[in-house]
Amino acid sequence: MTDTPRDLELNPLFARAGEATSFPRNRIPEEGSLPETAYQLIHDEAMLDGNARMNLATFVGTWMDDHADRLYREAFDKNMIDKDEYPATAEIETRCWRMIADLWNAPDPASAIGTSTIGSSEACMFGGLALKRRWQHRRRAAGESTEHPNIVLSSAVQVCWEKFCNYFDVEPRYVPVTEEHRVLDGHDLDRYVDENTIGVVAILGVTYTGMYEPVKDIADALDRIEDATGLDIRIHVDAASGGMIAPFLQPDLEWDFRLPRVASINVSGHKYGLVYPGLGWIVWRTAEDLPEDLVFRVSYLGGDMPTLALNFSRPGAQVLLQYYLFLQLGMDGYRRVQGSTMDVARYLAGEIGAMPEFELWNAECDIPVFAWRLAPDPTRRWTLHDLSDRLRMHGWLVPAYPMPDNLADITVQRIVVRNGMSHDLATYLVRDLRACVGYLNKMDAPLPDGLHSGFHH
């Protein structure tokens, strides 16, 4: 047996007579092929991908309507960074983040500043970088050292924040989640912050469980710390998922710019913003919250346009799609879509929580996401990883994974309900889940270890 990969092979039926039907897998072929041949080869291989509507692991949207698809095709070639060539797209981008600033209750949306990004990961990097630069400026103005900056986060933070700390030389200070404090809630926050803290990250929709971190409680704790120590520490809200849920389904929840300590917020347009991947947004409360030396300026049509980006060339089409949804759905449409998704999540949580094998980690859904663990049973011979594998045989991707440090001995499963997961599909999932549990309950010995599919946040 050889480790050398076989060539990609195409059925001769799909190739022109005399045309190559075998192509090297890891190097460019010497000769090209007809467009139809190349298409068929890639089309066939891509069929091995999973069914997106049955993927309950991902937050990322996978469906838009025909008008959005048409608009997308018309804008494939638009480069968001080229604001001189595409001034209309640049103007629409500005309209979008101003709409989002208004949605998040910015004191004066006209004086806020924001930008689109490649997903929330870039937006988080930018939010953290602005906190760091603002802290550096303040420290230098006071004649103090700018060495050893730190940022305070939950141990359940998404991996992009670990990347931020690594890439931009910031010490992460993780507040552990525990059975008593299942999210970062301000408890013992004074033990983690000091004069070198550039900010605190609050998550509106923790990736592991979907739970909101109570931003107001965190802000109140920081108010008490400032009263006691004089430390003025700002908050960045990572609202990758909740930023497009809370304004529509929990409008009275104080988590956004209504809290003076919140300096910046990000969201994924390609999650509950309902746009194809990859699109993110970040908005700062005011222009003063984004240090000017992070802003580059370009001129177009005789005017001045600020540009903020870690990436350079990137698609502009998704920005147009976000604007399309804002116009097409409006506030009422987003309420209805998100409400329908939440109804399906609550139905699933109710059905799964009622099964004696499971305990819901969070009984109430903040976003249409919830997690559960196994109920204690010393006679059980299977794990949630086994259940995840059995569900995969039915086409469902329902991840099982350990919780963060301090709770790493607890394994949970999580369901993300996205637009397109209908109530009918949810009933089929419940049916298959019960069948899988019934099968596993009949086993008289555990399955072998180490054979499970992996999952990473």
Automatic annotation (TrEMBL):
It comes from Corynebacterium terpenotabidum Y-11. This is Glutamate decarboxylase. GO terms for molecular function: aromatic-L-amino-acid decarboxylase activity; glutamate decarboxylase activity; pyridoxal phosphate binding. It catalyses: L-glutamate + H(+) = 4-aminobutanoate + CO2. Its cofactor is pyridoxal 5'-phosphate. It is an enzyme of class 4 (lyase). The modification N6-(pyridoxal phosphate)lysine is found at residue 271. One of its GO terms (biological process) is L-glutamate catabolic process.
